TrEMBL record:
Protein name (Swiss-Prot/TrEMBL): S9 family peptidase
Cited Pfam families: DPPIV_N (PF00930), Peptidase_S9 (PF00326)
Domain Dipeptidylpeptidase IV N-terminal: 102-428
Taxon lineage: Bacteria, Pseudomonadati, Bacteroidota, Flavobacteriia, Flavobacteriales
Domain Peptidase S9 prolyl oligopeptidase catalytic: 515-707
Annotated source species: Aequorivita ciconiae
Alphabetical UniProt keywords: Signal
Record-level GO BP terms: proteolysis
Length: 710
């Protein structure tokens, strides 16, 4: 009997060890990071307007509703149940938009439905054209605005369709994001609060150069032209249109300065009488926040101005937090960090509400009395994201989510309750309800580690110093069988550009799972967020001005020196990989410091900033005419003779962001200099390789590193 129990004991231990030794495949690492290997989480959480009730979606097919104040069991609605009541075959819930505390809108295959959760009845309100894009619903009226081609339409619940614009000239584009989605622009249609007026962006691309992309699907292939304004060349000319649903007339607002200045960050005043628009000059160093009459389009006044010799970039619209059409919150980094300011449409800046030496990310809402503003920000650690409240009357600030980590939070309309979903280095995911004192009321999810059974190594977050004293955060991933007495090759993964942060205090520390797979192949995988990257304040980010690739490379070399100082690093086997700005950094490192890395893989790389778009490129580099020395120093086309290692560049054949001219010009320079390199195209992919082909991409990238970093 004892022998039997002993055998059983050792057998169970063997099973446990075996379970922990499961190997992560590259296919699962690439294709399942946000599937079966993603921690359990709450999707689609919303506070129901005007209540302390909430709703979220489970598995995409079950709607769960609850109430913080009620002890009754919450309600559930299956997609099949709702579909049956609507006479529709529905598969998954799309995001909900609430009309009131009982009824919500949702969309399925271009059909819009309104469902009453109390009566358990609903109806279809509209079916928009199959070619409709950018649909934007007005919740009070159920009217939908959308674009078809370059024009904008509205469709009423009675089926009436009205053409808001009717431009035959394809150069005049209405209702879409403009300025290539820079400066916080994400959409181009803006309903007024009560739905009486519709504002929209319009751009005139007549003078913007055409850029050819090759569509290989038809026989023969055909050229498709896109509009692409390169740095220093002619740009689009913006307007804001305001359509009156009663009069069926449109007025237009143009920049008060030059015709190619920027109009961005549009918001409505609560009384619908005015719109507030941030106008930015072409040089992007002067913001004028203007008030415009919505009935005439006339300029009323400049509310406030900001100037900076490097750049001034508005990223958030004016936030009106009460029924007042004069008082609003403006977000600005004019003191060196993104902070909140109380402003008035007549008085301009009133006072600074927050005075943090860290970055506020975005305003999330306010209480119903208009006394507190809720916003997210990093707090003292730039790796965190937390929820904060600030009292408007006295600037008193409170952190509502104290646990260190990356929090995705929302607050009930009366400010009493918080939904908080967070992760950190040690926590896969927690989703819970709190009161505004931080007490946990309900825990929805406390996720298990979905990769616990896999054979994976450790991740360490560290800090180094730049030459001018800034902290540089690092991430180092080691294999599960790491031996400090061995020498390991290293893959450095880099991005390094503005508006991006690779290292965060979140689950997996911001790393992709393919990095952990790569570590299991006997590698160390290292990342450093250099100066110029996000969430560190203006001084940290703006050192790149007029010299992209210079200070960033210095910081990456600080990381290289650190790696070489480690006794377990093989300093002769360093490789580097990055995409987009990271592709630019990869090629830069291979050509400007050619003996550091044996191997580089650059995806979608910028190779000369004169080929990049006006909006992004001129903010950081000015124009080629204004800054010829900076453009020459950053260009990689005159440095190909320096290549000593193995370099692979990769490009999507119809990339509309970093156009193919970058890579082809680089290759021509390599040919001219008699230098061999490797190049791979992903046909009919844009700037990123997505879908099932993502596995092909990462297999190619990592195999190239493994085969050549010797």
């Amino acid at each position: 009997m004892k022998n039997y129990l002993s055998l059983l004991f050792f057998f169970l231990i063997f099973l446990n060890v075996s379970a922990q030794q499961k190997e992560l495949t590259l296919e699962d690492a690439v294709m399942q990071q946000y599937g079966k290997l993603y921690p359990k989480h709450i999707s689609g959480f919303q506070w129901i307007p005007g209540t302390n009730s909430y709703v979220y979606v489970e598995n995409g097919t079950t709607l769960k509703m609850g109430d913080v104040d009620s002890k009754k069991k919450g309600r559930e609605f299956s997609i099949e149940e709702i579909g049956e009541s609507l006479g529709a075959e529905l598969k998954r819930f799309s995001p909900l938009t609430w009309k009131n505390s009982n009824s919500f809108y949702f969309e399925a295959e271009k059909q819009y439905y309104l469902y009453d959760s109390d009566k358990k009845t609903g109806s279809i309100i509209s079916k928009v054209d199959d070619s409709a894009e950018n649909p934007t619903l007005q919740t009070d009226t159920g009217i939908i605005a959308y674009t078809v081609g370059n024009n904008i339409y509205i469709q009423k619940p009675n089926g009436e369709i009205i053409a808001v614009t009717d431009n035959d000239d394809k150069n005049i584009v209405s209702g879409q994001a403009i300025a290539r989605s820079e400066m916080g622009i994400t959409n181009g249609i803006f309903w007024s609060p009560k739905g009486n007026l519709l504002a929209f962006y319009q751009k005139d691309e007549t003078y913007v150069a055409d850029y050819p992309l090759l569509n290989i699907i038809p026989t023969p292939g055909e050229l498709v032209s896109i509009k692409y304004p390169m740095a220093g060349q002619k740009s689009e000319r913006p307007k804001v249109g305001i359509y009156n649903l009663d009069t069926k007339k449109t007025v237009f607002i143009s920049p008060t300065g030059n015709l190619d200045d920027y109009l961005t960050n549009l918001s409505w005043t609560p009384d619908e009488k005015n719109v507030v628009i941030a106008e930015v000059n072409r040089d992007q160093n002067h913001i004028k926040l203007g008030l415009f009459d919505a009935s005439t389009g006339n300029f009323v006044r400049t509310i406030l101005e900001e100037k900076n010799p490097k750049w001034a970039e508005p990223e958030h619209p004016a936030y009106f937090y009460s029924d007042s059409s004069e008082d609003f919150i403006w977000m600005s980094e004019k003191d060196g960090f993104m902070n909140l300011y109380l402003c008035n449409t007549k008085k301009g800046f009133v006072r600074q509400l927050t005075k943090n030496k860290w970055v506020a990310n975005e305003i999330l809402g306010n209480d119903t009395k208009g006394k507190e503003i809720y916003f997210s920000g990093t707090g003292e650690s730039p790796l965190d994201t937390k929820l904060y409240a600030v009292t408007i009357s006295n600037g008193k600030q409170t952190c509502l989510t104290e646990t260190s980590g990356t929090h995705n939070a929302s607050i009930s309309s009366d400010g009493k309750y918080i939904f908080d979903q967070y992760s950190n280095h040690d926590t896969p995911n927690v989703a819970q309800l709190l009161n505004n004192k931080g007490k946990v009321l309900t825990t929805f999810v406390e996720a298990d580690n979905p990769i616990a059974e896999y054979k994976l190594g450790t991740t360490t977050i560290g800090k180094l110093k730049s030459h001018d004293g800034f902290d540089l955060y690092t991430r180092l991933i080691k294999p599960s069988d790491f031996d400090p007495n061995k020498k390991y090759p290293v893959l450095v993964y880099v991005y390094g550009g503005p508006h991006a942060q690779l290292i965060t205090n979140s689950w997996n520390d911001g790393a992709a799972l393919w990095m952990k797979w790569m570590a299991e192949q006997g590698y160390l995988v290292f990342t450093l967020d250099n100066r110029g990257s996000a969430n560190r304040g203006f001084a940290f980010e703006s050192v790149i001005h007029r010299q992209l690739g210079t200070e960033e490379l210095k910081d990456q070399l600080v990381g290289v020196d650190y790696l070489k100082s480690l006794p377990y690093v093989d300093a002769n086997r360093l490789a580097i990989h990055g995409w987009s700005f990271g592709g630019f950094m990869t090629v830069s490192m291979m050509l400007r410091d050619p003996r550091v890395f044996t191997t580089g893989v650059a995806g979608g790389p910028v190779t000369d900033w004169k080929y990049y778009e006006v909006m992004y490129g001129e903010r950081y580099m000015d124009t080629p005419q204004q800054n010829p020395e900076g453009y020459e120093a950053a260009s990689l086309l005159d440095k190909t003779q320096n290549l000593t290692g193995k370099l692979l560049t990769i490009h999507g054949s119809i990339d509309p962001v970093v156009v193919m001219q970058h890579d082809l010009s680089l290759i021509k320079s390599f040919v001219d200099n008699g230098k061999q390199m490797d190049f791979f195209i992903y046909p009919m992919h844009e700037h990123n390789v997505r879908g099932k082909d993502r596995l092909h991409l990462m297999t190619k990238v990592l195999n190239y590193v493994i085969e050549n970093n010797k």
